[in-house]
Design brief:
The complex is a heterodimer of chains A (340) and B (318).
Chain A lengths: L1 H11 L3 H12 L1 H35 L22 H8 L2 H30 L8 H9 L6 H11 L4 E2 L5 E2 L2 H8 L13 H11 L3 H13 L3 H9 L4 H12 L1 H16 L22 H10 L6 H24 L11
Antiparallel strand pairs in A: 1-2
Helix pairs in contact in A: 1-2, 4-15, 5-9, 5-10, 5-13, 13-15, 14-15
Chain B lengths: L1 H52 L4 H6 L11 H7 L13 H32 L6 H13 L2 H12 L17 H4 L8 H12 L3 H9 L4 H12 L1 H17 L2 H6 L8 H7 L12 H28 L9
Classes of the chains: A mainly alpha (340), B mainly alpha (318).
Chain lengths: 340, 318
Amino acid sequence: MTEITAAETASKKGTPRKRRFRSFLHKNKDFLRKNYTGWLFNLPLSIGILVFTLIPMVFSLIMSFYKSPQWVFSPSDWMGEFVGFQNYKKILTSPLAGFIAKNTFLYVTISVPLGLVASYFLALLVNNEKRRGTKLFRILYYLPCMIPAAAGAIIWKKLTALNVQRTDGTFFNGVFNEILAFFGGTPFRWHDEEDFRALLSIIFYGLWGTGGGMILWLSAFKSIDKQFYEAADIEGASKIRKLVSITLPMSTPMIFYNLIMSVIGTIQSTAPLTYGHDGSGGASDALNMLGLRIYFLSFGGDATNYGRATALAWITLLIVGVLTAILFKTSKWVYYGDES
Amino acid sequence: MTQTQENRDVRALIEGPRIRARRKKIVSDVFTYVLMTALAVVLLVPYVYLLNRSLMTAENAKYSYNFFTRDWMFSNFATLFYDKTAVGNNANPRAYLDGLKFTAIIIGFNLVAVPASSSIIAYSFAKLKWAGRNVMFFLMLGTMMLPAAVTQLPLYVMYSKNGMFGTGGFGWLDTIYPFTIPNLFGGGAVYIFLIRQFMLGIPNEFDNAAKIDGANTFQRYLYITMPLCKPVIIYVMLQVFISYWGDYYGPMVYCDGGQIRTLAQIVYYSTNSTDKVGTIKDNIVMAGAVFMSVIPTVLFAFFQKQLIDGVNMSGLKG
């Protein structure tokens, strides 16, 4: 009662505009009352997305249409002259584009499936908690992927060293090359090679981080209803049969999630950064790829070119968008349970 | 006689398959153990190599043929935290310890900030009904799929002293703010999503009962829902620890000036630069790597169950 009179007296005061706003508030009081708590709780996210995602995205798009000045003394010096799509054009026509497209494509198409299959297999192996020692093996598999990336790189550099000269003038070969030589192979420079072998080496090293992916699979396995397995046991189903007919289909949501996330992660990978070269892409650009190139164009000292870095980032976004859309469109194989 | 014969037949009938099943189980167990051990040996080769190098002299760590150490330099781990011999080029005898300090500050802040901010947001998605909820939810999932490469450079410019348009920015470069303050505003879409999933599994009856007792929304969030979310909060805290502990890329981008080095960053730089550490000592770098890898692994050993149980992806639909 008092509320209404207060609102009525209030609406009589002020300019017509203010009055209209007040009556809007009054009419929508219910709406506001119902929704303001939700928005209030969600406010941090709204601010976060606006400040740390949307504004930078728009800013990045603007930057990609400007030519960066020759010398950048402060990060704020990004704005040269407006050049339209020239940054995009230059990227697509540069001689590096081929290397980068090829390497990124191969890196994604080889390392993503390989990583997923390897970690899935590893998780299956340590899935049975009733088997004694399983938890210990999980720890052992997890350990190598916790080696810091930079330190991992020097380990691999040493393990695959070829003819490194010591201070006393003698030469030093890494263990992997020794093993290779022992079995009659030709030692080579692994990630320092100038051809496809460099990329394959990086993918090969990446296999030692398989234990990290194991955890998500284990949680997917754990959320599968035990009744399925009990029913299968009564029917006398074999282990392979249970894997193909229960475990695999029931973990498809996680397979889908991991597939999308690792495609997005791998496409912008800066993994070769730790192998020296300061992000320049290795010998003959054998390791140059999208994420690395963006890093190099953004923070690579003299090579810095903000316009091109952001243009390349937007090209990456476009590729990621198309790939994600394709993956979602073809996701009929993902099984979300009967109710959906 | 016939009685016992019959008994024996019956027993054979019952136990025959059981014995065969047991035999089959032993065979499969042996096979699994052999496979698990073989894989562990292969996967641990670089780690054992790292461990042995960390116990060598600097000279041997750099050039020795030997896979296993003969020096047993346990003192390397003391040198890691206080290196008397660090001279020249900006040398800091406590370079790694300082790195550990900054890493600890960042992690300490985020261990509180990330669960707090992401759980309050998750609560608004899971338990509150409001117009625009679905839009915000899909926007959030969208940020999960946005390549970080798109925002990293504009954020760098934004964080710089002069900002986007040279008229003033955040002034966050070479501080710990880029790794802490943004986490007050969400702390990561994946975490929000996972906490939301967990909250959806909590029956609304608890909330409604508290509502009748006169608890406001914030009280219901803090005293009713949050205590029940402990497993997923532990999961989030573990993930926060692991991701900030090993992150060298973020600090390398936003803290390149040298005032601040996180532990992961100092390990990264000391593999190819003499800055801060004086000279490149492979054995010390390796000791640092061992130290860095042991701590998350110990956490994993203790909280394996929470890490595996904390994820519930059901409901992430296309």
